[in-house]
Hints:
Helix content is about 45%, strand content about 10%. It is α/β, with parallel strands linked by helices.
Amino acid sequence: xxxxxxxxxxxxxxxxxxxxxxxxxxxxxxxxxxxxxxxxxxxxxxxxxxxxxxxxxxxxxxxxxxxxxxxxxxxxxxxxxxxxxxxxxxxxxxxxxxxxxxxxxxxxxxxxxxxxxxxxxxxxxxxxxxxxxxxxxxxxxxxxxxxxxxxxxxxxxxxxxxxxxxxxxxxxxxxxxxxxxxxxxxxxxxxxxxxxxxxxxxxxxxxxxxxxxxxxxxxxxxxxxxxxxxxxxxxxxxxxxxxxxxxxxxxxxxxxxxxxxxxxxxx
Length: 267
């Protein structure tokens, strides 16, 4: 309520109180519930302000300019939903996929089988949007138990621009390494889900083992990349939706960040 509305409310409240204490008759019309109506243009301006604020917030998280966050801002719930279900999200995915493909095709592989490309899985190769649509598109605090139940269904669909890039990377002759924060006990269902989504071939699928449970996402993924490079692999590309997929030691020659405003995995 703005200042003018607050002042009017206090004025009428004071008049009503005075009538009861002084038994003075007042026009009943003055005591009707106060309804503040905003003009259509003002409502539009308010909506525009929220869109601008939420767009700025999304740009900040994609650029890794915000600290750790657990849920999307309350006022951005509709914005994130519209973004994820609308054309913009898919256009953003297609842009990153296209640029990744241009980069991959520009490289001259050595032909020794040691040129590698690393892919994350969730919100990178397959989409958990059906799950998050039931949980406010990131408005709810993440629940491991509920999310694990979704994973075990094994029905996450492919992210089509990513599948297109994946097939191109295979065709070019890269060794494909899948590096995911999922735990080892999800290996079988992950393999099944990937196959059903159209991902038919890879060289390694690395998941968190028992000794990795307490590691941060960056420590786990960069540690695994280090092990890969120590074997002699050259990681020329890395593709993921979280900064924790991409930063840290043994970084790829070039990394590509996919949009994901629904959740944040701390580095």
